[in-house]
Specification:
The protein is mostly beta strands. It has 1 helix and 12 strands; from the N terminus they run βαβββββββββββ. The strands form 3 sheets. The protein has a 5-stranded antiparallel beta sheet with strand order 1-2-9-4-7. It has a 4-stranded antiparallel beta sheet with strand order 3-10-11-12, with no helix packed on it. A 3-stranded antiparallel beta sheet has the order 6-5-8, with no helix packed on it. A hairpin with a 2-residue loop joins strand 5 and strand 6. The mean pLDDT is 94.
């Protein structure tokens, strides 16, 4: 199996979130390793969270399984049921259809790094329990939870 050359994959901090939600992920950098290495069935991102950074808005998916593998540093996993510290070597999984909003927050004084993996072919909306936002898969855009325009 060929070794992935991370330096050859663009690092970005782009987001599709509309403001005011986009600024919460400004301290997140990622490389789309799956797409950058030719994978078509798995989405895989190498993510760096700077101190104070958020991985995403707290969310859950109707039809996408997710897994996070911590590589370095530490981050707080924030879920509906509370908070759990994740450190290098820890793994967190989020089954599709389980309404458990989650994200990672770096509350430390140094960067943390993790790999996030999901199923690129899965379907379903993405729900954001803390804010009036929904990724509406049928419409291909963010909407309000009631389906209205932003």
């Amino acid at each position: 199996m060929p070794k992935a050359d991370l330096s050859s994959i663009e690092e970005t901090n782009r987001t599709g979130y509309p403001e005011p939600y986009a600024s919460d992920v400004a301290r997140r950098r990622y490389r789309r390793v799956g797409a950058g290495t030719g994978l078509t069935g798995l989405g895989m991102s190498h993510v760096v969270l700077e101190p104070g950074g958020w991985s995403a808005q707290r969310h859950w998916h109707d039809g996408i399984d997710e897994i996070v593998i911590m590589l370095g540093g530490e981050a707080m996993l924030v879920e509906d049921g509370g908070e759990t510290l994740l450190v290098a070597g820890d793994i967190a999984t989020f089954p599709a259809g389980v309404a458990n909003g989650h994200h990672l927050v770096n509350r430390s004084d140094r960067d943390c790094t993790f790999v996030a993996i999901d199923d690129r072919h899965a379907e379903g909306d993405c729900h954001y329990p803390d804010i009036d936002l929904l990724w509406n898969t049928a419409a291909g855009k963010y909407t309000r939870k009631d389906g209205g325009s932003l």
